[in-house]
Amino acid sequence: LWNSLDADVQTSNLLITFLKYSSIVMQDTKDEHRLHSGKLCLIILTCIAEDQYANAFLHDDNMNFRVNLHRMPMRHRKKAADKNLPCRPLVCAVLDLMVEFIVTHMMKEFPMDLYVRCIQVVHKLLCYQKKCRVRLHYTWRELWSALINLLKFLMSNETVLLAKHNIFTLALMIVNLFNMFITYGDTFLPTPSSYDELYYEIIRMHQSFDNLYSMVLRLSTNAGQWKEAASKVTHALVNIRAIINHFNPKIESYAAVNHISQLSEEQVLEVVRANYDTLTLKLQDGLDQYERYSEQHKEAAFFKELVRSISTNVRRNLAFHTLSQEVLLKEFSTIS
Hints:
The protein is mostly helical.
């Protein structure tokens, strides 16, 4: 299947087919059958993301493919033409799929379990990149933007979501993804400017992080059921808040001295680069650690139900297709 890796020739393999299938199945999670299929796809991707050999293949810079994922039609974005798709290592398509899921499922019937699995897949891929020092040329800004928008969604729907889910588990995972980039980004981000862009994005969206801190602080100081979960997020935000509190006054001072009402991105980046040395961050342990996937106990009920559902569907379809055969066999059995 991999006879030609020429960038002008569309090549394929089983994993590409699976990623395309996942991008279709994971779009509509309102239907129970599709929800289960989406969950199964994310379980498979979880196992792939923590496998050393699979990761080596996914990240291989000599194995580049165009992967045309299904993207949900949205008013604020244009449909990318197939021929404009870049030829990249397959891990880029996996990350694209996760970003696509993040931005298209912020809804009332919030698929919490799928979101947790989605963030876990991203985290495991980052752990591999950090461990093996793989500098992936990927548009990380799209991921950062999607994660911040997800945090905003969790905050704006706090009351409704907390009635059904512990949203602080997900918020903690998102914040710790940013902590991974802050703490270890210099080992896996492609260029020093990518690291600058990370800081720019945190500073640009500081209001979202400030609002999150206010929310978790409020709930961690109350004696309610969310006290412990919210306080974990409070502690996880320490470096993000340090970045915001360190750079924002310097950006405001730069604007005042130069009489500029609104700084350009390049001007903000200039301030960031000039003030790295005086920034103090705390070392956070365990950011590159994760619990390996275990099917037993946690997933037993899901797979049991899945197998039951599949066998029921097969029997139903089989019965329909073999009905004429059964009639024929009965006729033969009466022949003397």
